[in-house]
Known about the structure:
It is built from three helices and two strands, in the order E-H-H-E-H. The protein is an alpha+beta fold. A two-stranded antiparallel ribbon has the order 1-2. The chain is globular and about 30 Å long.
Amino acid sequence: MKIIITAAEAIEKGVWLELLRLFGRDADEDIWPQQEFILTEQQAIKLNLIKK
């Protein structure tokens, strides 16, 4: 299963910095609020976005 989360949703859920780390992105990069990130099920569980 793949989970899609936008940058705005990640900020709202408090996982933004962890998401950046997962994708090797820099906090100073320009990222649009609606930019989407595709997570694996394991990544989403690690970020506590879903339960197993």
